[in-house]
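quick q for whoever's on today - can somebody do inverse folding on this one?? i tried earlier but teh output was garbage lol. tokens:
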């Protein structure tokens, strides 16, 4: 069965370096038979980083972020995927704030505070 890959463009500018590199990476993944879905973070509905609500730590939520905003479809798609491509410009020595917000939501939902 073909692989599903998510491509996240964490840069705001169309036609510039990050956009170009992401587009090329997508072509590469597609050339191997993967199905690629692309998300341009700066074109999504408004979203935030982790708000520390701890909803994801509730038993019934099973490590899923409960915040509903522009990132929800991205988090769902990454969860169901086989691979992830991330492209971000360097802004002040770091990945963009838009990417950091996604990263916090993506990682924190999977962290456990229980001892077992
Ligand atoms: C807010 C901001 C901060 C930046 N900080 C850095 C930096 O710390 N180091 C660097 O080498 N370039 C920095 N740059 C330059 C960008 O990384 C560079 O222009 C990059 O090509 C932008 O990606 P893009 O072509 O996809 O828009 C910064 C640009 C902006 C707008």
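ok took a stab at it. sequence:
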């Amino acid at each position: 069965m073909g692989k599903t890959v998510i491509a996240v463009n964490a840069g705001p500018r169309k036609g510039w370096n990050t956009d170009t590199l992401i587009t090329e990476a997508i072509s590469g993944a597609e050339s191997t038979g993967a199905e690629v879905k692309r998300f341009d973070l700066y074109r999504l509905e408004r979203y935030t980083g982790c708000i520390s609500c701890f909803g994801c730590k509730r038993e019934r939520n099973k490590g899923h972020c409960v915040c509903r905003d522009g990132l929800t479809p991205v988090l769902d798609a990454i969860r169901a995927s086989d691979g992830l491509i991330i492209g971000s410009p360097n802004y002040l020595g770091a990945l963009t704030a838009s990417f950091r917000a996604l990263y916090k939501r993506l990682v924190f939902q999977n962290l456990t505070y229980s001892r077992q």
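fwiw Strands lie at 4-9, 35-40, 83-87. also The pocket of flavin mononucleotide is lined by residues 11, 13, 16-19, 89-93 (CB under 6 Å). so keep that in mind when u check it
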